[in-house]
Design a protein that fits this description.
This protein is an alpha+beta fold. It is built from 6 helices and 11 strands.
Length: 217
């Protein structure tokens, strides 16, 4: 799946490129030498092992974090990544129209939702940065309507649910770090943005990949 942000395609979900795999492939092709800017940098056996070990640990942490998230264990999910939850706010709405914008809002006028749950979490990534993660759970009357809603929201420039902790629309969460999930009549939307410091793109992507797995309250 791909969203176009500022004219640039940005894969998310299953279509997101695996950076670790790309690095490993480059090392294999060059016989243990990684090409950077036309120059070849040798990667010794110890360094390559260390690289593999770090990638393996990160993958293991994210995988177990997602499993905890799927069980609704919020604090545990972040701890699996070595992170810490600092703050959590949540709110339930019975209408989606007043809490959405763009084409998505017009969709809700034609197809009202059953209810809307929104949550804002601030987490510490253990590297001196904090991240705001906002999640919305939209329950629709029919599975087909939920599928249509997800397809619309996944397109850039169509609007969105107004995420908790954001006003006006798009001022805080811009779609740069985004993920979504469909579960029968439920659509889950997650976005992340730096709160303090300079968390890496990978860190922000990990945050939404985990958060989108949380079940509805």
């Amino acid at each position: 799946m791909v969203r176009t942000i500022n004219g640039k395609p940005r894969p998310f979900g299953d279509d997101k490129p695996k950076k670790g795999a790309a690095i490993a492939a480059a090392a294999v092709v060059t016989g243990g030498a990684l090409a950077v800017g036309g120059a070849s940098i040798g990667i010794g056996g110890g360094a390559a092992t260390s690289l593999d070990s770090a990638a393996s640990q990160a993958l293991k942490g994210k995988s177990s974090s997602k499993k905890s998230a799927q069980k609704g264990r919020h604090s545990e999910a972040w701890q699996r990544l070595g992170w810490r939850r600092l703050k959590k706010q949540a709110k339930r709405e019975l209408e989606c129209g007043p809490h959405s914008f763009g084409e998505v809002q017009r969709f809700f006028l034609r197809h009202p939702c059953v209810d809307l749950d929104r949550m804002l979490v601030t987490v510490d990534d253990g590297a001196g940065n904090t991240i705001d993660v906002s999640v919305a759970w939209v329950k629709m009357p029919k599975a087909g309507e939920a599928s249509d809603l997800k397809r619309l929201i996944d397109k850039d420039g169509t609007g969105n649910v107004l995420l908790f902790g954001e006003a006006p629309p798009g001022s805080r969460f811009t779609g740069e770090n985004y993920d979504s999930r469909l579960a029968k009549k439920l659509v889950v939307i997650a976005e992340a943005a730096p709160a303090t410091g300079r968390p890496s793109e990978t860190t922000l992507e990990t945050a939404v990949e985990v958060a989108v797995e949380f079940p509805s309250p």
